[in-house]
Amino acid sequence: MKNILFAFFLLSCIIGFHYPPNSNKDLFIIKIDTIYLTFNEIAKPINKVELTHAAKFNNKYYCFFSEPEHHQHNQIRHFYIISENGIVEHSIPPPSDITEIKYLDLFVKDDTIFLKYDHRRTTYFLNSELLSWIPTDEADDVIYEDNQYYATFLSSGEWGYVTWFKDKQTQKEYELYSYGMFINKIDSTYYITTDNQILQIDDPRKMTPRNPREYYQIAKEHGKGLGSQSLVGAQIIFKDSTLYNEDSDSYTQDVLILTSFKHTNELFHLYFDTIMLQVGRLDNSKFVPIQSIDIDGVFTTYNMGSYRMKIQKDNSQLLIFEPEIPNLYGLIEIKENKIGIRYLKDKIDSINPRKHYK
């Protein structure tokens, strides 16, 4: 009898140990690797080289790097096309009018690599055959598009910012006080993700309608219509308890949201909880971690000029982070349930030029 009871207990433990079919274990495939590059132009001793902008298209990385001039604040900029296995295929000089990285945006739209320089309101597209930047009509500030809506975004710094949803059928525009560059759609509901909050919009037509004199194009040309701070039509489903520290004159966030993304028609979130990078979902306005990613680095979510088309039509995303090791560059690639952490490392250490990596 004791043997029968023990066998039953052992069988119960074994069955209980197995994960059910809908378990969160290994829900996401996380891969971390390093590719080694050869940058002949920027392997200078002591310089701190930064990866400032990156886009991915047709399995290639398109990247801007910057480094300071010796004893000067001006930065030298380099643009490279890099294969997935780390071959630097092309080095292309950037347009001569680009002088400040913070006003630059590199993005993919309509199967084309675009470069927008907001400081001078100039736009270029990359000619893949000539391997050069070609001037073109000024790009607008689109951050999202589907069959129903065309969403744009403008910021005037301390004067405010607005996200517009333009109804393609009626041409009417609706506004929302949000600077979120990441817009996802689940069924008929839209979600806008910022670094510290997530908004849910069930119907953009219930947002604040704008006077035609304050539509996006007019506001862009004349700087009008910004800063109404309307959240009508949106529900805040998450907001971080950001605290202001008077001593350091800074804000401390409990959670830094890097982005949100879709998988199996559900919304997931990549966020930093001050300890570790997490992948999780929302439950009753709280993040529930699913999988942790053990990487160190500085994570930023907002670049003054870089916000267009952060999520591609195939729902893929490419994010940049800054590892703690100098002259090591970090990329985060997301598509469905695959999350890739890719380090880019120069084969020649610019701090110690005699040191080579295999």
Question: What are the SSEs and their pairings?
Answer:
Layout: H1 2-17, E1 29-37, E2 50-57, E3 60-68, E4 75-83, E5 88-92, E6 104-109, E7 112-117, E8 122-127, E9 132-136, E10 142-145, E11 149-155, E12 161-167, E13 173-176, E14 182-186, E15 189-193, E16 197-201, E17 208-209, H2 216-222, E18 235-239, E19 243-245, E20 250-252, E21 256-263, E22 266-272, E23 277-283, E24 286-293, E25 298-299, E26 317-322, E27 328-335, E28 338-346
Parallel strand pairs: 1-28
Antiparallel strand pairs: 2-3, 3-4, 4-5, 6-7, 7-8, 8-9, 10-11, 11-12, 12-13, 13-17, 14-15, 15-16, 16-18, 19-20, 21-22, 22-23, 23-24, 25-26, 26-27, 27-28
In short, what is this structure?
The chain contains 2 helices and 28 strands.
**What is the average per-residue confidence, as pLDDT, rounded to a whole number?**
83
Distance from N terminus to C terminus (CA atoms, Å) equals 64 Å
Shape: globular
Strand order across the biggest sheet? 1-28-27-26-25
The biggest beta sheet is recorded as:
5 strands, mixed
Tell me the number of helical segments per DSSP (H or I, 4 or more residues long): 2
Ranges where pLDDT stays below 50 over 5 or more residues in a row are: 1-23, 351-358
Q: Order of SSEs, N→C?
A: HEEEEEEEEEEEEEEEEEHEEEEEEEEEEE
Number of strands: 28
**Percent of residues in β-strands:** over 45%
**Portion of residues in helices?**
under 10%
Cα-atom radius of gyration: 23 Å
Structural class: mainly beta
